[in-house]
Structures are given as C-alpha cells and as structure tokens.
Amino acid sequence: MPGRIRIGISGWRYAGWRGVFYPQKLAQARELDFASRAVQTVEINGSHYSLQSVASYRAWHDATPADDARLISSAKPRPRGARDVFCYFDNDQKVRTPFDARRLMVRLGLAPSAGQQIETGR
C-alpha cells in the first residue's frame, strides 16, 4: 500500500482564529468539526501535555469526519511500517496556520482550489 501525504494543523481552539478562519458566528463547540473539514488531519496536542479523559477522546472522534487519520493524538503510537507522512502547521497568533495548510494541500493536488467554501458536516 503506497503512503499518503496528510497536511494538517496542530490544535484547533485558538481565539485568534475566530472570525478569521472560523466563521464569525460559529459556536466554539463546532470549531473542531469545521477545522477537520478544512484540512486533512488535526493533531490533538493536548494529549502531549496531560492525560485526557475517555469522554474527551470520544467527543473529539464524534466531532470529526469518519477517517481514521483525521484526528491524531501526539501520544498515540504509530506503526513502524506506516509510510504516511504527516505535515503539521503549528499554531500562531497571526492566523496563518490553517490557511497555509490549506494552500499546501491545494498546491499538492490534495484538495480543491482554495476558493472553495469549507462545508461543515452538520
């Protein structure tokens, strides 16, 4: 099985992204859903810093599209034989991260043009 390139972001809950990357009136509870549809993978970077509850992992899972590589925990061990490449854009306060990730996806032919509206699943 050939490997895949997955472009994503490190985290999703950043106040500076509200009204810029996230639509103005999007509820904070829907940010993961929106972000996970804008890029191919979202890193749960909170799991690197502290133990998360089972309920949190379930909620994150339920808020994202059905794709086993859509939501990645930095604490989750990866199989040694995996050939997928994950490229994360780290968060920033200038709100470039999600847009840079999306532009790279378009440039590599991994997503439709940057002008296409990002749809939420609900």
Automatic annotation (TrEMBL):
<dbReference type="Pfam" id="PF01904">
    <property type="entry name" value="DUF72"/>
</dbReference>
<protein>
    <recommendedName>
        <fullName>DUF72 domain-containing protein</fullName>
    </recommendedName>
</protein>
<dbReference type="InterPro" id="IPR002763">
    <property type="entry name" value="DUF72"/>
</dbReference>
<dbReference type="InterPro" id="IPR036520">
    <property type="entry name" value="UPF0759_sf"/>
</dbReference>
